[in-house]
Write a structure and sequence with these properties.
This protein is about 35% helix and about 20% strand. The protein has about 200 residues and is an alpha/beta fold. Strand 4 and strand 5 form a beta hairpin.
Length: about 200
């Protein structure tokens, strides 16, 4: 997959540590990222946490937070970033179906992201069977991970990039990609049309 290949290039060139936190996608995202070239040198790891109390204890989710929400996605991404001492983390959570859960329609998915410079979230509205919803959510999360790996400030003095690999500056407001980053933090995206789905997160 092109996104994984590019992610591995960026992470290795800039000495980044990457991690993921998953609920709805149940390890699908981690499997994709872990297939990247030399993943053992830059993929810090992933957490699959379905139960809300596990999200609270392991990832710092505020008790009482709706597990299918933008707030949850953002908080568990922050928790993953801290847990793995990473430079960029992306999270997934949501409801696949076939019916609604907690008042959320099937296919409601939230992605969270966290870097050392900031955090945010995005919303997806996906249609399809459970497998389709998980595939589409994983693909979207991978694209989000790549985007933030491309724009995040490189590792600091505690974890310097590989020898001979200079760092770069964080993106500036108005720079190419800056508007896309802002939009990815709060926008909704429609998924492809298909039957209804099932998978909880």
């Amino acid at each position: 997959m092109e996104e994984v290949h590019r992610l591995s290039e960026i992470a290795r060139e800039r000495g980044l540590r990457v991690c993921v936190v998953e609920s709805l996608t149940s390890g699908r995202l981690a499997a994709a990222v872990g297939a990247g070239e030399d993943a053992s040198t830059w993929f810090a790891g992933g957490v699959v946490a379905y139960l809300t109390d596990v999200k609270e204890r392991l990832l710092g989710l505020t008790p009482g937070t709706d597990p299918c929400s933008a707030t949850c996605a953002q908080q568990i991404a922050e928790g993953g970033l801290s847990l793995f001492d990473a430079d960029v983390c992306v999270s997934t959570t949501g409801v696949g179906g076939p019916g609604s859960e907690g008042g959320h329609p099937a296919g409601t998915v939230f992605l969270g992201w966290a870097t050392r410079q900031g955090t945010g979230h995005g919303a997806l509205s996906l249609l399809g069977d459970p497998e389709q919803v998980i595939d589409d959510a994983s693909d979207a999360a991978l694209r989000l991970l790549l985007f933030h790996a491309e724009t995040v400030r490189p590792a600091g003095p505690l974890r310097t990039p590989p020898e001979g690999q200079p760092g770069t500056s964080p993106i500036l407001s108005g720079a190419p990609g800056a508007d896309a980053a802002a939009s990815a933090s709060s926008s909704s995206v429609s998924g492809r049309t298909a039957p209804t789905a099932s998978a909880n997160g």
